[in-house]
Amino acid sequence: MARRRVAYRRRHQNRFSMFLVTLVVVLIMIAISFKSSELREKIEGVDAKISQLNQQIASEEQRSEEIEEYRKYTETKGYVEEVAKDKLGLVYEGEIVFKEED
User: Fold this and answer.
1) What DSSP string describes the chain?
2) Backbone dihedral region of 20: left (phi > 0), alpha (psi from -120 to 50 degrees) or beta?
3) Angle at 25 between CA 19 and CA 28, to 5 degrees
4) Rounded to whole angstroms, how far apart are CA atoms 81 and 87?
5) What domain range is 20 assigned to?
6) 19 in a domain, yes or no?
7) 96 within domain boundaries
């Protein structure tokens, strides 16, 4: 009879231990799933920011190209003539200037 009680207690303790282990494993799985969803959201946010920064880089590269083209244009004779005529009112010798009346 004593042996039966000991065997019953051991079986009961084994079941309780298995229940606790199962409970802990389930809780760990739940915690991991919550953390993984948070990490996915964070990754999506970072991906969006990377995309936005790549667009900014592309627009700044385009702007840089436009500035470089303008710099090259400002070194040409045509630009110098244009500025001299528009801003300074200079003309070539023998050139006739027509102005609108205000």
Assistant:
1) -HHHHHHHHHHHHHHHHHHHHHHHHHHHHHHHHHHHHHHHHHHHHHHHHHHHHHHHHHHHHHHHHHHHHHHHHHTSHHHHHHHHHHTT----TT--------
2) alpha
3) 140
4) 10
5) 2-86
6) yes
7) no
Give the Cα separation of 3 and 77 in Å (integer). 111
* Predicted confidence (pLDDT) per residue in 44-101, tens digit: 999 999 999 999 999 999 999 999 999 999 999 999 988 888 888 778 888 777 777 7
How many separate domains does the chain show?
Answer: 1
> Does residue 98 belong to any structural domain of this protein?
no
- Report yes or no on 66 lying in a domain: yes
Query: Alpha-carbon distance 20 to 14, whole Å?
Result: 10
> Does pTM top 0.90 for this prediction?
no
How far is residue 66's CA from residue 96's CA, in Å, rounded to a whole number?
Answer: 34
28 Cβ neighbours under 8 A, 6+ residues apart: none
